[in-house]
Amino acid sequence: MSDATLSFEEAMEKYDPVLGFEVHVELNTKSKMFSSAPNIFGDEPNTNVNEVDLGMPGVLPVVNKTAIESSIKIGLALNCKIAETCRFARKNYFYPDTPKNFQTSQYDEPIAYDGYLDIELSDGTIFRVEIERAHMEEDAGKLTHMGGATGRIQGADYSLVDYNRSGVPLVEIVTKPIEGAGSRAPELAKAYVAAVREIVKNLGVSDAKMERGNVRCDANVSLRPHGRERFGIRSETKNVNSLRAVEHAVRYEIQRHAAVLDSGEPIVQETRHWHEDTRTTTSGRPKSDADDYRYFPEPDLVPIVASREWVEELRATLPEPPAARRKRLQADWGYSDLEFRDVVNAGVMDEIEETIAAGATATVARKWWMGEIVGRAKNADVDPGQLGVAPATIVELNKMVEDGKINNKMATEVLDGVLAGEGTPAEIVAKRGLAVVSDDGPLLEAIDAALAAQPGVADKIRGGKLQAIGAIVGSVMKATRGQADAGRVKELILERLGVEG
Amino acid sequence: MAAINRDDVAHLAHLAHIEMSAEELDRMAGELAVIVDSVKSVSEAAGDDVPATSHPIPLTNVFREDVVGHTFTAEQALSGAPDAYEGRFKVPAILDEG
Fold it and tell me: Residues 8..27 of B with a Cβ closer than 8 Å to A: which?
């Protein structure tokens, strides 16, 4: 049975949404959080485990120093305070995804707290999201439910467990309640998770691939009537694991909550499951006794003390934040907001930066990447950067055009040759016999013929209608089979007609 | 520290998946109350200037370098499992938890 929903617009008219996110980030350390087993995705089940991951009696966990440093870096990048001392705690529950019957986590002493992230929305609006905490924990094993409906736990006969993921270091980033997003709540949700993903990727502490579960999001949504301060009852939609799904899930939950509230029923505080196929959520389980995790300090681990010297050392290693880098690059390159946004959305910002570093101007780099390569990449269904165009190739092509050796049309032909593996631009130009007709003699012949054939156009140009020149240039290009330099042809036509360009 | 009563014990037994009879609950409530009382005397001895401690030895930052060590084979990992299937632990389906 599917739930009733209100249209998003009606929901927004009546209610004010409050959001909250828990984003889990898997760190890309070589070994696990508390054991020396490798942290590798996708190997044969139960081969990246040792006695610690399997929770064998008598084993002792030992903390991975790199995981702590990565966690501190994440905290710093989220503008958090870093705890001078903090501890791990046991979160006790019975479920076969952990063989220990507890997850080693942090409870009342997270390593990072009280931060914020400024999120830029698509129109440039900056929205500040406050970070409550970022704490360290370990990932759980992976269950596959067998029998019954495919992959769903409902009706399953049994489950199979792979503990390879068990003990992989996680940082869980928890926001404070996010108020005031209004109808931009779904967009903000997506932008927030995208920003977190970008930050951890930029820090180099996570592979940050959502499709692999490196970054996972639980989205909390509640509604309240406009003007009321007290929050409504929230639902928590678990494991929304793509940026698009985050946006859709928040939107759907807002519409569903609104319909429940409109009917006069109370919202049930519960976990919801997201279904990508129908873009809806279904009821998971209500909050219950099972959520009494009886946290207590992990007796097998000693406290972590982050000296201020250590924190500052780590801070000094932080790369430029992605948002600041974008701002700097846009200013350096002199692109308009729209031009720059298109570049970012096309995913060629890094490529343009490299092309400029290789010697191209910002305008030339943008022209090639946005005008030629992005479209070809789309046709080939690969990322533009993966198409195989080296920055040096663009610089070389552009130089040939600027030197008048080839024209723009030929340059795109050469580019196709490079992509087809025919060699360097210079080799392809030689091989295909491409060269601009630079001797004015043949050009003048063609120009004279074109002017004679179109006397009306010639008169217009003489009369000052310079845009009419296109027709003559076109004829000349046709006569020279595209091997003329259009700029030079234009100059010669004006000269011939005695008109100032 | 609050005293522990029979309902608390029943709740904890439920959370810990331990089945207890009425008699066991009665007896355990009494025994745990004595233990809690005994622990309480520690709080009396420790003044406000003594911070709560989770570990008897004052150690911090016991770390390991991020270096990959030994692993089990799937056969070794599963050797103590009550049931297994295709390299994985086979467990009863548990609905609505976790």
Answer: 11-12, 14-15, 17
pLDDT the model gives residue B98? 39
Model pTM? Answer: 0.79
Element (H, E) at A362: helix A362-368
Is the pLDDT reported for residue A153 higher than 70?
no
Taking the C-alpha atoms of residue A256 and residue A248, their distance in angstroms, rounded to an integer, is 12
User: What's the pLDDT tens digit per position in A19-48?
Assistant: 999 999 999 999 999 999 999 988 999 999
Domains along the sequence of chain A with CATH: 8-313 (no CATH), 320-432 (no CATH), 440-497 (1.10.10.410)
Question: How far apart are the C-alpha atoms of A474 and A267, rounded to whole Å?
Answer: 69
Sequence letter at residue A239: N
Strands (E), B1-98: 63-64, 84-85, 88-92
pLDDT greater than 70 at residue A155? no
The separation between CA A304 and the C-alpha centre of its own chain, rounded to angstroms, equals 32
User: Please, what sign has the CA dihedral across residues A453, A459, A462, A466?
Assistant: negative
Structure tokens at A223: 């509604």
Report residue A219 as tokens: 């989205």
Q: Which residues of B touch A97 (CB under 8 A)?
A: 98
> Is residue A152's pLDDT more than 80?
no
- Residue A96 dihedral angles phi and psi, to the nearest 5°: -70, 0
Residues 16-35 of A with CB under 8 A from B: 29-31, 35
Q: How many cross-chain Cβ pairs, A to B, lie less than 8 Å apart? A: 150
**pLDDT of res. B95:** 61
- CB-based contacts of A297: which residues, under 8 Å, 6+ apart? A87, A88, A89, A90, B54, B55
Closest CA–CA distance from residue B66 to any residue of chain A (Å): 6
What are the φ and ψ backbone dihedral angles of B79, each rounded to 5 degrees?
A: -65, -30
Q: Tell me which chain A residues have a C-beta less than 8 angstroms from the C-beta of B14.
A: 289
